[in-house]
Amino acid sequence: MSCFGWRMKCGLSIFALAVLSTGATGASAPGRTVRTATGVVSGVALRHGLEVFKGIPFAVPPVGKLRWRPPQPAAAWRGVLKADHFGPPCMQPPAPPRVGPWTRVFNSQRPSSENCLYLNVWTTARPPSSPRPVMVWIYGGGFTTGAASVTLYDGAALARQGVLVVSFNYRLGAFGFLAYPALTQASRHHSSGNYALLDQIAALRWVRRNIAAFGGNPHEVTIFGQSAGAGSVWLLMQSPLAGGLFERAIIESGPAVIPFPGISGQGALAAAEKQGEQFAAKLGAHSLKQLRAVPAERILEASEGMRWMPIEDGWVIRPNWHPPHQASVINGMVADDIGIGYYGNGPRPPVTLPVHRQRLEQLCGKQAATCMKLYPAANAQQAAAALREALQDRARVSLDRWATRQIERSPRVYLYYFDRKIPWPQHPEYGVFHSSELPYVFDNLRLMNRPWQPVDWRLAREISAYWTNFAKTGSPDGGGLPIWPAFRPGKETLMQLGVRMEPIPLASRARRQFWMKHSKKPLGF
Predict the structure, then answer these.
(1) 466: helix, strand or coil
(2) Residue 56 to residue 45: CA distance in whole angstroms
(3) What is the CATH classification number for the domain harbouring 201?
(4) What is the pTM of this model?
(5) Which domain holds residue 439?
(6) Catalytic residue numbers?
(7) Are the beta carbons of 240 and 321 closer than 8 angstroms?
């Protein structure tokens, strides 16, 4: 057997031994075998004529001398790999059962590992009569947490709608984004950092090479992601290394909605290298060899409180480089992505009249007096509502500005505004919180314990159908769904997804005109 593990000289990792053993647990029923470019895998039969393959290696474990190197293609194996377990999440802090609105189903609950570059495929149990479109999911988590095995990301419900679903892990935090002078010097591209994005590109290359064996169309791939995953989708749209690996893209709560973290502009790589040198000194490491010898747990511990993010490195991400033609794209937001409710690592302080004034001054600068007239408040309750409206209006106008630029490169652009509050009587304060569209996108309401209403089940069916329709045709419309008009410059509307499903204005006329005039560029750019 050829080795694709790392713990023994030519042996298998503990995880690989588990999935290759005949006594592996968790398989409800054995599935068919599929031959990939690196070996044969067997899946797990699901209900409704579906099958899932979990934990397929798409790269060599990035450990030892491969830590902080571009991912290397997985080595071939003999025999049948039992793909019935998710691979370990990439190194990250342990997730508590709940942080604010993000309960267990939103977070990775499994022990993490550097040996984490595995992917999963949901498909039909029998080969389809014709190849099916493929949807590739990229998870969020601020580039420091997240995993393809998160409960809500189960792809079975989407696969029932006539697509294949692929999810994968990518390196996080310092493991995914460390830039360091010695790494740059060792690279033939004179680049370091962005290993997480290179993992994503490697997974897409695996899809292009192997997905036909699972019944998918390698030339009809849609990438979709949320938060940091949405930022990743946007960066993949810009990267010359990802060209030709996908045809469509869905951006959920990413650039144009949330200020997107990253190091860009002239000197970006040098700035990131300086942070890397400071980090190495913190670890007591004075060379690349010493850095690679530091235990993963120590690196994780030393990373606490640091920001790790994509950079313009001149290779994966090139300054001022844009492909002449990009994918059709959906981009949108949820109502409280950047609202006054819960966002980040804790609840914001209550909105008082002084807080209302202070925040509007920050948002509107020299035009704060006009903002106060557009978003007036006489008491704390009105202040909270007015500030929420100001943030939402600005974000929706930002989406319109982004689309006006993007339509020059993309065949079609669709914008949305999701405003359904997940039923949670105990915690109304969280509003339509960041990530709250995910149970609906994946049609996985059954995996959350909430007092769902008929409108929620209907909304999950319709949103998941919009997403899968887009993957099939490049348009979300079809199957009797409410018509979702494509973006047109000057129309100044976007699609509302919620109790009501219809195009709505970005904001009232006066507010729209204000933000159009005083927001010079989309958020996150």
Answers:
(1) helix
(2) 16
(3) 3.40.50.1820
(4) 0.92
(5) 328-518
(6) 227
(7) yes
